[in-house]
Amino acid sequence: MKKVENVFTKGSSRRSFLKNGTVAGAATMGAGLLAGKAFAFDREDEDGRAAITRGDIAILRFLQALEQVEEDLWRQYAELGGTQDNEFTGLTGGNAAYSQALQLLDGDMPQYIHDNTDDEISHARFLDMYLQSKGAGSADLSHFRSLPSSTADGAQQIGRLTNLTQLTIDTSFWSRYRSITNPDFDATAKFVQAVPSLNVGKHTAIPRSNADTQGSVINLSDPTQSTFTDHLKAIAFTAGFHFAFIEQGGTSLYPALAQHVTNLEVLRILLSIGPSETMHFQTWQDKAGNATPLTDVDPVNNSTVTFSTLSAAQGETDPESQNGDTLQSNLIMPEPTNFLDKKFGPVAIIRPTSILNGGAVASVVSFVQDGLFLDPKSNKNTGIVAVLMRLAEEADDARRQF
Ligand SMILES: [Fe+2]
Ligand SMILES: [Fe+2]
Prior knowledge:
Distance between the termini: 17 Å
Helix content: 25-40%
Low-confidence stretches: 1-16, 20-38
Number of strands: 6
Shape: globular
Bound molecules: fe (ii) ion
């Protein structure tokens, strides 16, 4: 398999971001494609199972890196909008206005945000510990914690890996799961954006400062008596769609990479974490559909967002249509789709699950296009992109060994 030539990969050191970069870890990173060789430090092949390969390590290490990115962005949402308790550190009381605006989507939003965050923390930590237990270096991204925090009440003032204030959100996941068309099956398929304006310009999904919550009147004891500006509602609804965008990525990524895993225990890890991403996605795509119609002009990003009433959108009248008639918000179960061969008939599945459309590089590219790594000072991506792309290429290059 030819290595993907990519501008991101030029000139960066493979060793510089390896935590506990043992000889094994560094060798793995430099080896690229080593067909058929078991990972030297694996001891788990006593019962005849295939040993952990270099490809398995590359897959685990990429996932451990991406889970750190997920953890970073979810922590920002949790600090501002999540339930405030002691389950994990860094919560300082929250932002009542943002938290209540999120509850316009569902009263349980703060709890769900908190728990999604807790899950990502556990994913990143588990994969780190597992890699270390195999003597393989894990990815250390702390060097890239350089992006600013929100200054709104509730946010810690620390460096971040991700920027949630200049997002361009691809909401085509919405119609993809409501369509008979599978992007793995039809590479030219176009999926309608549920919120077209979120896919254009830059949008904030968190209050950037207390200016973003000004004008809303918050009743702490009875949220039903609170009133919200359209601006704050738009920020909360943007977050609602961003949650689903992030988690549908993991929903495809784990099954895509699992097909290239050799060792059964590593396969078990991917098959066990992956569906938890799907549980997140399913929850979020249900909640996002509760957004109410509004238009907001953001003077900071110079962008406009318009939410429409998806609950009133037309149901599925023509399954092959790509004209937006499958936007109905309560269609939250996956519509059966083409898979492998049309002769088998449509089947309800996760999609995409190919490396090309749902693998590691595809995941990094979608995060980059989302604006997650944009440094607001330079308007350029941070150096994390080059590191993630290198790890992603190694992961996508992994092949199941026999
Ligand atoms: Fe995760
Ligand atoms: Fe996730």
